[in-house]
Amino acid sequence: xxxxxxxxxxxxxxxYRELLAAADALxxxxxxxxxxMANVAALLWDFLPDVNWTGFYRVVDGELVLxxxxxxxxxxxxxMGKGVCxxxxxxxxxxxxxxxxxxxxxxxxxxxTLSELVVPVIREGAxxxxxxxxxxxPARFDAADAAGIEALASMLSSRI
Length: 160
Ligand code: SME
Prior knowledge:
There is one protein chain. It contains four helices and six strands, in the order H-H-E-E-E-H-E-E-E-H. By secondary structure, it is α+β, with helices and mostly antiparallel strands. Strands 3-2-1-6-5-4 form a six-stranded antiparallel β-sheet, with helices on both faces. A hairpin with a 2-residue loop joins strand 1 and strand 2. Helix 1 packs antiparallel against helix 2. It is globular. Methionine sulfoxide binds next to helix 3 and strand 6. Methionine sulfoxide (SME) binds near residues 53, 78, 85, 86 and 113.
């Protein structure tokens, strides 16, 4: 259906423009949030180089619960304020972590992960989910990645 080979090597702003357009095409008009998260998790996995986990945690009854993802099986429940994901959810703020071992309380789901980017998805002022990207490279993510995933999260807030 989609072939993203052509995006390899694009500068990040262009890569994220392409990613957003693809995510928009995949989720527009579909009301099922699980289906939309599943397709976006797979899209992120396909689009982004040097990642070992791409996916969602959803806020359910005051804690984070694993959602659709690509990568190895992961921790199922994360308390608000715990780890990188719980911190992003509690503070409603992007967490750009160049070295996960230096992040207090980091939850190691996969020992191969060295850096991480977590972006909250906010609907009507409340955090409803987070997008989590992990990488086996140190300092894999930068401000351009954060801006790209924040734009994605904003688009998804009414679709998941
Ligand atoms: N490392 C995350 C936990 C989720 S896994 O990376 C998929 C954290 O500290 O919140």
